[in-house]
Each structure stands twice: as C-alpha cells, then as structure tokens.
Amino acid sequence: MSMMDEQRYINRILKGDADAYRHLVERYQTGLIIHCENILKDRQDGEDIAQESFIKAYRNLHKFSNEKANFSTWLYRIATNLCIDLLRKNKKQVIVKDVEAFLEVTNPQHIKEDEIHRLRQLIEELEPPKYAEVIKAYFWEGKSYQEIASIYKTSTNTIGTWMSRAKQQLKENLV
To answer: Which residue range is the domain that position 47 belongs to?
Structure first.
C-alpha cells in the first residue's frame, strides 16, 4: 500500500466508511503488536495496547495530518505513549533510550516505500520457500525460534540455520 493509497483510505474513513480502516489495521497490526511487546516485555499487554492504539487512532483520525507525519509514525507514537502510560501505571521503569530505539527499529524513516516493496519481493523469492516462511514468522508475526521449530517439527538450531541462510540469500540478492 502506497502513501497515496493510505491517504485514500483515511479520506474514505473520514467520510464515514468505517470499513476502510480495516486496510490500515491489516497493514500495521503485526508490526505494532511486536513494537508494543518489545516495550512492555509482555505479548498479551502488547496485543492489548496495539488494539487500544488502533481504536484511539480511529477516534482521533480527524486530528491526523499527513503533512506533519506519516500515518505509521502517528500510530506508533500513539502506541508508544500508551505503552509508557501502562508502564507508569504499573510502576515499571521506563527507559526513554529503549523506547526511542524501538521506534527507530520498528518504523525506520530512512527506508522508502519502494525499498520495502523490493525487500518483501525478495523475501517471497527465497529458496527453498520455507526460508521465506521462517523470516515472515519471526519478523512479521513475532514468533520465537521455538514456536517456529514446533510448527516445522524440527529443532531451534535448524530454525537458526534456516534463518542464517535466508538472511545470506537476502544480502546477496540486495546487492
């Protein structure tokens, strides 16, 4: 989905087409859950805060301005703030540098849309196809090596090997 497509969905939502929001949720859901989980160090809390973030973004979409930030930047900022609020509420220590690092990793501003598309295309072309599945499960779905190993009925060492080989193929194909 390009930024123009994203803006079209936002315009449709603002005109009353609530169903169009589904496209934005589908695009950012996995990454946002992982982002929140990384900050909170808890999967369930991460999922809850991600859902709360989508609700808050939907309710405040009329305040969003694509001239000030990308939708993803705005959404991740909402999620980060909600994570910090939860940590404060539970009196857990919030380390600002960690939060900033998570923002940079989960929402890299230097990667352009076409580069992301190219990377996704290269992932789809990995051989054997299970390498692409392992990359997607780990990075996009937030599954651990152990969870992936149980899906493939193999060891975590094998998953690590597949991951290394997949990354090597990506490096070779990116040059």
So the answer is: 3-109
On whether the pTM is more than 0.90, the answer is: no
Total domain count, the chain: 2
Burial of 57 (0-12, 13-18, 19+ CB in 10 A): buried
Mean pLDDT computed over every residue of the chain: 81
User: What is the pLDDT, as a whole number, of residue 91?
Assistant: 67
Question: Where is 157: in which H helix or E strand?
Answer: helix 156-174
Please name the residues in contact with 104: beta carbons below 8 A apart, sequence gap of 6 or more. none
Q: What average pLDDT score do residues 52-69 get?
A: 89
104 and 141 together in one domain: no
**Contact predicate 165/131, CB 8 Å:** yes
- Nearest partner of 133 among 152, 113, 107, 146, judged by Cα: 152
